[in-house]
Amino acid sequence: xxxxxxxxSSPDSAKPKINWARIEEADNFAKTVKMFRQxxxxxxxxxxxxxxxxxxxxxxxxxxxxxxxxxxxxEIYPHQxxxxxxxxxxxSIGSAHFSTRENIQLxxxxxxxxxxxxxxLAEVGLTSREACGNSVRNVMCSPLSGVCPDExxxxxxxxxxxxxxxxxxxxxxxxxxxxxxxxxxxEKHGMVRMVDVGxxxxxxxxxGSSQRGFKIFLGGGLGNxxxxxxxLEEFTPEEDLLYTSIAVxxxxxxxxxxxxxxxxxxxxxxxxxxxxxxxxLVFKERAIVxxxxxxxxxxxxxxxxxxIKRPIRITDESGNSVPDGYARWLKTNTVKQKQSDYRxxxxxxxxxxxxxxxLNALGDIIRNFSSEGKARCGFVQNVALRYVLEDDxxxxxxxxxxxxxxxxxxxxxxxxxxxxxxxxxxxxxxNSHRLAKEIQRKFLDLKLDEDDDLSxxxxxxxxxxxxxxxxxxxxxxxxxxxxxxxxxxxxxxxMSLGGRSDGDTMLGETCVRVPAKRVIxxxxxxxxxxxxxxxxxxxxxxxxxxxxxxNEDSDIKSISDIKKIIEPMIVPPTIQEDxxxxxxxxxxxxxxxxxxxxxxxx
Length: 602
What we know:
The protein is an alpha+beta fold.
């Protein structure tokens, strides 16, 4: 019997429960592009139409688009990986990008080819509808929901039901700005306080019976001005989940600032109104929604458990030893699930990038190693394979090694987040994308991923103040800007310290501006200071948290003390002394801060 015979005799792959696509949207998009090219559709109207369908503008050109593919709750199946691989080869640049919001992005797509991508996505039940624009964006869910030892119940079905309810829903087509939901499993594995609506599953006992519900946070968000969300109430029963969501959205739709694009996210409304007033308004609006909505208006929550079935594949009887690096990878890329004998495996990417060949290979890898037959995307630009039997981990590592996806450090600070930056974004001021890769390569060379003191820390980088790289909630965060010596400009970053998105969520404190070519030495200096001053049970995250809050008892008592030590390292040389200092990463031309028009508010 041949290997192909065995593959054909394997059981069918897992299938998605929901088809998110509508093929007619591809046809409509193609017709509208043609009308736009013929001058029959004005530019502003076309831009809104394009964004509503998930095609984002590309830096400094109107002939290309970025297609943002939504993965509700982060779920993606093998045949979907393979289709996206094919589309990337045919219509994009032979690679794709995983975002921080559980989307996959295809860059530099010719505008006329966008509809062909829509057709391809429809074949596998995916859509990019409302991945951009003033609508409910992709509904996120922690990649550990369903396997986390600390969760009360799996929130994934609720995230999927919420996504299905609001997709193409008339009430969500013309909001003042984008609107985001995050579901998670527990306090530790999500960003529920940094989003419009964040939800943590809860259970309470009433008269001896258990009732499901959520702890809901409202009015948080990252951006040019970031805010931490507020807890709505102690417990929101599951039957009130939809009523609460509709109520909050209606308030935002009615009262959001549609005139001032810079301040029309819901977090500004909550801040300007005051939390107590906004909270009371939500309770009143929810009562109205509950009393007036039709009985058929409800979330279609499918809590049927997924079938967990070990894949059929050929046993490796070669006797090959485990490749070098396995122990390091096992430590930094896998976590034990609450289900015995299983682990979740996180695949390290460089700033979210993956080639089309790697996408295609992941399809087979999921079929052969994941007992649930699908993968999950997370909040940090990586991919999680869950329900991998511990006995299969060495062979999985070998397969990942073959396709260049076995880098260690996925769950450590050596895997920084970097937004797309000047590689494609109209608003970017620096190449944050490339800087994240440079940090990752350097820190893996130094084997910092093996340092337990650094494992729970994070580095997040945005190419401008708008926080697509989540810099505000990083242990060490950076956002891009420009500096100048005389007439000569150079790229630099505003550094913040002490941000976090767990149960003690807080925004990082501004420290100092760091030139791009000094970012890596500055981070290493902060780690050196930590090693000198730490207590026995400290991690970098806990030490910086103590410094930021003024509770450190060493001679580093505040961010100002760190700033004083760093300042000599960031004095810019003249361009004659160090010409490379004035170039951004990935560029051989002089630095400038030219930007285009942003489309998040279109």
